Amino acid sequence: MAITTKELREKRAALIKQGREICDKAEAEKRQQTAEERSAWDKIFGGIGPDGTKIVGEEERMMAEINRLERLEIAEADL
C-alpha cells in the first residue's frame, strides 16, 4: 500500500519533533550535543545534504532535511 501525504506529514512532524527535543535539551543545558545525541540526530536526519555531501553544521542538517521532505511532499502531491 502506498504511503499517503497525511502519513508523510505525520512522519515528518514526528521526526522534526525528535530532532528539536535533542537540540532543545542540549541548548537548555547550555552545552554541545553529546556523541549519543549527535548519533540519534544523524539517525533521524541522515547527515547527508541534497547533493550527497556530508553536512557539517546542525543548522545545515535541519535545512537539508526540511528541503528533502518538502520535495518528497511535493512529489507525493503530484501523484
Description:
The chain has 79 residues and is mainly alpha-helical. 71% of the residues lie in helices and 0% in strands. The protein contains three helices and no strands. It has helices spanning 5-28, 35-45, 58-78. The two termini are 14 Å apart. The mean pLDDT is 76.
Helix-strand topology string? HHH
Biggest beta-sheet profile: none
Number of strands: 0
Low-confidence stretches: none
Mean pLDDT comes to 76
Shape: elongated
| Termini Cα gap | 14 Å
Please state the structural category.
mainly alpha
Task: From the alpha carbons, calculate the radius of gyration and give it in angstroms.
Answer: 14 Å
Number of helices: 3
